[in-house]
What does this fold into?
Amino acid sequence: MNDSIRNVAIIAHVDHGKTTLVDGMLWQSGTFKANEAHVERVMDSNELERERGITILAKNTAIFYKGVKINIVDTPGHSDFGGEVERALKLVDGVLLLVDASEGPLPQTRYVLRKALEAKLPPIVVVNKIDRSDARVQEVVNEIYDLFIELGAEEEQIDFPILYTNARRGIAKKSMEDSSETLQPLFEAIVESIPAAPGDPTATLQLLVANLDYSEYHGRLAIGRIFSGTLRRGDEVVIAKLDGTMHKTRITKLYGFEGLERIDLEAAQAGEIVAIAGVEGITIGETVTSAETPLALGNIPIDEPTISMIFTINTSPFSGKEGNYVTSRHLRERLDKELLTNVSIRVEPMENTESFKVMGRGELQLAILIEMMRREGYELMVGKPEIVTRRHNGKLQEPLEQLVIDCPADFVGVLMQKIGSRRGINTKLVNQGSAKGSGRVRLEFSIPSRGLIGLRSEIMQDTRGTAIVNTLFDGYIDWQGEIPARLTGALVADRAGKATAFALWNLQERGELFVGPGTEVYEGMVVGECSRWDDMDVNAVKEKKQTNMRASVADEAIRLVPFRPLSLEQAIEFIAEDEFVEVTPSSIRLRKKILQENKRPKRHKHAMEKDAEVVK
Ligand SMILES: Nc1nc2c(ncn2[C@@H]2O[C@H](COP(=O)(O)OP(=O)(O)OP(=O)(O)O)[C@@H](O)[C@H]2O)c(=O)[nH]1
Ligand SMILES: [Mg+2]
It folds into this structure.
């Protein structure tokens, strides 16, 4: 046992304030010097995390409090990155379960708590954002108790300490009446109630790899926890591979974590979380162990992927104009590289060697991968997300999800109808904070994951952006039959050229446009959403007939309704079976799979055939 170490993961639903709380802990433990610039959510260090304001990768840091080293793992709260949480839990001996004082427990709270309880990790409950004007602290505490009971927590697990925090201001209190102005009560609670890191430093070396990283100088880095023994830099060790084989290697670098830095270490003992180099080819779930008496630890189980997308080379007329990496070999190498560090993604090559089926935990996870690729200079096309089915006792099954929507009561009717048509079953309807007359409700549904594809943006439209939508994987059910997909067709350019204001002006009554004047288009490119069910081939490049007369009056009459350029995620949500999203470093275009108008089957017919195929 190592009494001077505590290993703790911070887990919660998305946005409940984990990374902000870590900021406070870093500052108040004196990890940053007073003169250092104050960066908010400093652990969200990668570009996409900062842009989107969400944590994507779990990250380690450590602070010192009264001589005790507290290793902290900050985890992502978005359900698509649940795999990160599962692995983080392997590193720690306890968790801080954060819950927003107004939102209360949400689907991902349930998911992460279930994982923590299964791993028998003692929790400290942290009710955060107590400063919110709509905070309902006591109600939320009761909901948390209910959740523990629902999840079958054991008695000592329910006996958790509760702290009330304002992570933004760095305040933790043992009771709401407490006058504390710092996080000290939280530090105390961690040292008191999270067990000291167990493990015998004199026993056989066992380090479980839970994460991977890469360094320019030292190559692959493995991040893991020493469960027993002591590891020294320069040690000759064995990697117990997942396939049962043993590989000898030498540890060339050993790092500990402190604040935002990696610190060079000579040795580290059982209980520590470290990063090591000299371990080329190692992957998550493998054990670094003694060369003389190797002893493997168990693997890390990861939930199966639920969604798949086809990634393929860009075959559009503009292919290769905007990106540096465009061939199928480039694609394959990049995806292979991703697999090395991203264990919740799977890749299967397709028969036509130019395409890959990439599977993950959700649309956002795959969208993030695509976004990273385009920033690195890749061009590719991706197809409509599909769910990953399975055969169980000879029956076709599909993934099921729990869908939770918070929205103003006025929208209940329209949402019920929409979600019902996608085979969602309403399981709960609660008025929230009715005492305060907020008029908001929480609706819960059980719905096949397939019904969720594209649903989020529709809900946002239907509720004028007022809904909060959350989903959580909830097992499998028998195939639910046909679910209607997008109810509108596409406006498809019928020839190449530069879109003109004149042509677009004529088109805008047919639907909603995705491109503005001056955009280069090609035959088969989707330039808008048709207000009708079927596709419409349109001329987006038509020039106004030249006349001899000055036409200033007519020109001014061309008042274009603002067009709606689609973000990558919106494009992925929008496309139908017979369409691709074309992604390059500088553009996101939508297109028909078959570009030529005269070769393309009509959309509705094609879509129905597709559905029939799957049911068979
Ligand atoms: N009012 C208030 N806002 C807070 C508090 N703590 C965090 N926030 C805000 O909540 C938002 C989300 O905070 P994050 O720390 O990014 O949340 P997170 O749990 O790390 O989010 P993910 O990692 O994406 O799951 C930010 O805008 C914070 O400033 C708090 O105590 N009070
Ligand atoms: Mg975060």
In short: The first strand starts at residue 5 and ends at 12. Confidence is low (pLDDT under 50) at residues 611-616.
